[in-house]
Amino acid sequence: MKDTDRSALAVAIAMVLASFVLHPLTQDSSYLGLSWVLIVLLGVVSVVLRRLHANSAVVFGAQLGVWAVATLVIAAQLPAVRSETGLFDHVGALFGSAVGHMQTQSAPMTPNDGVKLLFVSCLALIAVLTDLLVLGLRRPALGLAPTATVFLIPALGLGQDTGIGPFLLIGFGYLAVLIAEGLNANARWTRGLSRDSADEHGTADPVVWRAAAYIGLPALVLVTVLGMLLPTISLGGFGFGNGPGNGGGPIQLADPTLDLKRNLTEPRNRPVLEYRTDNNDPLYLRLASLPAFSRAGWTNAQTPLQQGPDFPAVPGMADTDTRQRSTRITVTDFASEYLPMPYAPRSVDVQGSWGIDPNSLVMVSSNRNPRARADASNGLTYTVQSVDIDPTAADLAASGVGTPVDSETTLAVPSDLPPRITELAKRITASGDTASAKAALLQAYFRSTKNFTYSTAPQPGSGYQALTNFLFEDKKGYCEQFAASMALMARIVGIPSRVAVGFLPGERDGDHWTVSVKDMHAWPELYFSGYGWVRYEPTPSSVTGTAPAWSVRGTTPSQSESDSEPSTRATTRSQPSAPASNRANEQQTAPVTQAPTHPLRNVLIGLAVLVGLAVLAAPASIRIRRRGHRFDRDREPSEQVEGAWSEVRDTVIDYGGSWPSGSPRTIGAQVGDRLEPSESEAMGRLAVLVERSRYAQTFDDDLDRELSAMTSEIRRGLAEPQPWHRRMAALLVPRSVFRGLLRFRRRT
Amino acid sequence: MTLSYDATTGTDRAEQRDVPPLSLDDVVRVSGQVRTAIEQVIEGKRASIDLALAVLLAEGHLLVEDVPGVGKTMLAKALGRSIDCAVRRIQFTPDLLPSDITGVSIFNAETREFEFKPGGVFANIVVGDEINRASPKTQSALLESMEERQVSVDGTTYALTPPFMVVATQNPIEMEGTYPLPEAQRDRFMARIEMGYPTPTSELDMLDTHGSADPLAELPPVTDGVVVSGLIEAVKAVYVAPAVKQYLVGIVNATRNSRDLRLGASPRATLQLLRISRAWAALAGRDYVSPDDVAELAVQVLAHRVIPSAEAQLARRTAPDIIAHLVRAVPLPDRR
């Protein structure tokens, strides 16, 4: 096999692997086959022409020609957008439609003809460029650049983690190119050797394969494993962790609050679902829970999903033997990727593929098809087993604030939050001494009709502006503003919180309850130890009726008990007076048992960071230790001089300079030329000292002070003209430490 | 029978004159005076003068090679004149006889005895002008005196008084009417220098100084033979570290293994390179030889002794180029 054949084959392999990277972008990836044909065709052109000793420019030109012709031919086969125009206009129209299509669709999209043509054409063009770099310009190391651009398309276009797959595809393709180059390099230098010598010693090719196996593959594996430990690369696509395990990366969740506003302002009210439950109590049905708060408002956080039908433990809930409630829900007219359920669900019997967020116990469709996912809940009838979180006001007062597993999200308050919001939160809760008291004060503040007016037409705006508008300016809003503000203020006073989106209980209709589109609602959930996420209701009673019993501040436990509504909630709790201390103990261990992978993962990340820091700091510390050793006053004078000389040498190398070869005097003169006169003179004196220590008969100068002063003057002189980044590099990554390696490389 | 013949007085001399003990500072001082004196006569040839001085202090002989008229003889004569000692000049011609160099025994009719009439070699500094114009037989008459520092005539051996130095000048061998100097004789010269043309500024100065009077006639001696002998002794005390010796041997060895050279340097060359390195270090006021000294002198000391191979000659590579290349390739000793 000739050199060029090998490299061309490697380029083709790399490109075919790279083409798979585009797979998650579209639902139908059949066009990839066409791109492979084209890639192979271009490879054949390259091989044949190079076998005919064609100039690289000729090969490049020929490949470009093949690429252009192929693009036009494919375009001509596609149904015309405007058939009466010429072929070039036709191609332009196709590309134009592709761009328009991609701008309006989100991945994975249904590719139209233009998109297919664009992708095939781009892949072929990248193959031509890679061929040019690897074979034409003989720069195989740069061959990564064009294929990496393919990697960028899903990385930038999907707007989410690309998963490990594309990275590995590109990595293996690049490895193939490098292996081909290694084999070629061997072929080049062994070409002149006689057959006999090759037979006796074998060829060097196995060395290349071994290098690929020992260095290339472990490097890819290492990067993958490290990537797994770091939080940025999601491994959902490969079934690691708790992902849904059906390939392709995480699911992009829709923002449930978008529906909220739209449905609340819809002119015509219509029933969306019905439910019937034990005792036929009214129930809040929850769709989603938004744990993350930022400048933009409340959003979803990305968490790996678990498979149903059984749910993981209720976060933070100590009582496990609470009686379960059974609810049968029929969704008549409501399309969502979230499944409406009472909190806290324990198990569900539902059709379709669903994933469970273990932190919020929200159930999300894990259907890959976005359209099917958006419609997942419609028309379903299912039964949910759930437990009620309904502590008494006294219980809540006795329990403190808990720490949920995802507390870093649910307690986070952005640092740039307008301070008046913080002040207001502190002022409202000033008289509350416990967490539950503070929560009750907050809720009372929002529910007071003196303070706020319910309106589905608040002033437009988003983020902080909308919040300050609601809290300080027009004081008008609907459930979303009330819930968002209370949840945020709860965080400010140290209670973990999130905003739930779902439905109000609706209207009783005989033996079942009917929920209408205007019942869509948002409410805050606050986290208390022993109970987990507890619902609060800051939206005024004109819409929501009475507030939950536990959320109203009572002066004494007994009073709050008696004040509470005569609902069955209190009686559903089997042991309303369980000892508080017992609960406290249980809740401390609860988060660990719920998700054992998380703390371990944090420890691993911590370890990785520590190891990384140690690795980063190692060169600098080696360098500093060496310097200290060199100026050890206890050493022989000649060794001290040699130490100073080595120190100057290492400093020169650290700043990226070259250390001349030759006698001390020659080196001294050459390095001195780069310095100011006085420093140059010091360099000359040091050089003479070195020469004397090495070659004179006796050397017993008293150099103690002089030597270190001289050395520091020279080092200062070397450092002065350097830009700051060079100095930093010299400090953190001193090249002299790697000098042995560099020298080895030069020798090989 | 060995006699000591005092060239200065022209009489036999029984006792050796006392050589004063001198230090390195004296070497620097005296050589500086000599250098200044010679520079009054020859402008801009500092390197050639220093090398000539080093050869003198290392008890070697100097071969000055260049085209006619660039001051070869002037350098030799100025060196002799600035030292108050016997200077003889022998003009080598094709009809010069060996006895003209060594001397001859003539029958004295009055005393009825053979009387030794010393030849041109009996001096402290012998200037052999255009040495390659004489016949090989005459050239080889210099051999014994240069190496042994003695002359044998009619069974009697006459020792030459130190300091003794032959400064031979020769025209490039390609020129007309020249006999190439045999390898054996070339090997006896410690160093060969090429004068080269003066720079334009030096040449302008030269027009001023040499235009009217003969500056050589006005050159006063700044030292004498006894002091020079003392300086030679002082130079012998310069220390050579084992590493430097190793380096030196490495360079000489490289000439023997080089593919560019048909004939490498002799062990005598090794010795002479060591001695001139000592003198060179002493001239710089150092009591030790550094590898730089060896490297600087290698071309001058070795180039005239080696013969480039046919391939190197075809490639137009001269002996100095080859030696310089070899010196760069020999690794420098790192530690003592």
TrEMBL record, chain A:
UniProt-listed GO biological process terms: proteolysis
Matching Pfam families: TgpA_N, Transglut_core
Region Disordered, residue ranges: 543-595
Residues in the signal sequence: none
Residues passing through the membrane, by range: 7-25, 31-49, 56-78, 117-134, 141-158, 164-186, 207-230, 603-622
Polar residues compositional bias, start-end: 553-595
Gene Ontology MF terms: peptidase activity
Entries under InterPro entries matching the protein: Bact_TGase-like, Papain-like_cys_pep_sf, TgpA_N, Transglutaminase-like
Keywords: Hydrolase, Membrane, Protease, Transmembrane, Transmembrane helix
Positions of the Transglutaminase-like domain: 471-540
Record's protein name: Transglutaminase-like putative cysteine protease
Source organism per UniProt: Microlunatus kandeliicorticis
TrEMBL record, chain B:
Matches recorded under Pfam families: AAA_3, AAA_lid_2
Keyword vocabulary terms for this entry: Hydrolase
ChlI/MoxR AAA lid domain location: 254-323
MF terms (GO), sorted A to Z: ATP binding; ATP hydrolysis activity
UniProt xrefs under CDD domains: AAA (cd00009)
Keyword Hydrolase among UniProt keywords: yes
Highest rank taxon of the organism: Bacteria
Chain ranges of the ATPase AAA-3 domain: 61-190
EC numbers: 3.6.3.-
Keyword Ion transport belongs to the record: no
Signal peptide: none
Protein name (Swiss-Prot/TrEMBL): MoxR-like ATPase
